[in-house]
Amino acid sequence: MNLKKIEEGISNYATFLLKEKNDTYLFAWESLKYFQENWDTEAPDLLTMYSRSLNNSTTRRQWKREDYFPKEMMEKFIQTEPEYVRLAFRDLFNDNKDINSRVDRFIFYCDELLKIYKEKNPIGKENDHYHNHEMVMFYLSSRFPEKYALYHAHSFRYFLEYVGAKNVVAGHDLERYAKITKTLHAFLQRNDSIQTSIKKRLEEKHFQEKNSLPIYEMMMVLFKKSKII
Prior knowledge:
11 helices, 0% strand
């Protein structure tokens, strides 16, 4: 990757943070706080815990929008096979295993859960569990916010091209994403002006501790800017 382009990207993010309307992605900071305060894989009442963990006073677009209902489907899975769901999350959050394999397995678990749900609810119209790589990374980045950044596939692919990375693949490479997250996290943590600007935006409803959401924000800023130019 081209260091000058990385620094240029960070500069673009710094400029965004100084704008009057710099709250575009703050909904993610609120979602992260809800998740951190409520998540417990071993909670006796898994359904209530899950429902409380995915919450937001501003928007539900991370788990509910047109033709996209991952939260609703996971709640149905929990009502149908709670221990299978618990097993899936245990495996996903086992940070000793390869991230690509964990995410792929979680999606496989959801495929199996959908089959089970349809067998038990034959008159239902559900044909999709909506748990793509971005939704599964929402869980993972919310569980380990300092290690993993919220994932948006198109903005990550654009970022790789922007910084001149080699071998940019069309699919998902979450191991690479995790490594780049770690590198960018170090860059941003050392930038005092950016850290100050980030903290100025945050309200009580937002997650206040160190996390990797600024990386997601920076990639989204660059991606959105590329669509305007």
